[in-house]
């Protein structure tokens, strides 16, 4: 499915906004663009046991999906 410019712009703007959740919402360890049923989504990975209730179901008209990160994420040395 081809995206028109306004769809792409909304997704990009939603990703920028959602990236703030990495610092602002406890348990959020990742944010990225996903897809469900051929439409873009904002996927948010959370550490199990944290409350996703602080996150909206949509952001700038783009659905938000909460994903299980599988546990704490730690940076790996180079």
Any overview of this molecule?
Strands 1-2-4-3 form a 4-stranded mixed beta sheet. Residues 1-6 have low confidence and may be disordered. By secondary structure, the chain is an alpha+beta fold. The radius of gyration is 13 Å and the shape is globular. It is 24% helix and 33% strand. The chain has 2 helices and 4 strands. The N and C termini lie far apart (38 Å).
Question: What is the structure about, briefly put?
Answer:
The chain has 78 residues and is an alpha+beta fold. The chain has helices at 5-19, 21-24, and strands at 28-36, 39-46, 58-59, 62-68.
Summarize the helices and strands and which ones pair or pack.
Elements: H1 5-19, H2 21-24, E1 28-36, E2 39-46, E3 58-59, E4 62-68
Parallel strand pairs: 2-4
Antiparallel strand pairs: 1-2, 3-4
Amino- and carboxy-terminal Cα gap: 38 Å
Specify the oligomeric state: single chain
Q: Tell me the structural class.
A: alpha+beta
**In angstroms, what is the radius of gyration?**
13 Å
**Nearest-integer average pLDDT:** 87
The biggest beta sheet reads: 4 strands, mixed
Number of strands: 4
- In DSSP terms (H or I, runs of 4 or more residues), the helix count works out at 2
Which residues form runs of ≥5 with pLDDT under 50? 1-6
Question: How are the strands of the biggest sheet laid out side by side?
Answer: 1-2-4-3
Strand content: 25-35%
State the order of secondary-structure elements, H for helix, E for strand: HHEEEE
Helical amount: 10-25%
Shape: globular
């Amino acid at each position: 499915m081809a995206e028109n410019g306004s769809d792409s712009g909304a997704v990009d703007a939603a990703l920028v906004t959602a990236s703030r959740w990495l610092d602002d919402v406890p348990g959020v360890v990742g944010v990225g663009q996903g897809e469900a049923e051929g439409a873009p989504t904002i996927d948010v990975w959370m550490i199990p046991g944290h409350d996703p209730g602080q996150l909206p179901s949509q952001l700038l008209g783009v659905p938000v999906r909460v994903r299980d990160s599988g546990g704490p994420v730690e940076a790996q040395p180079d």
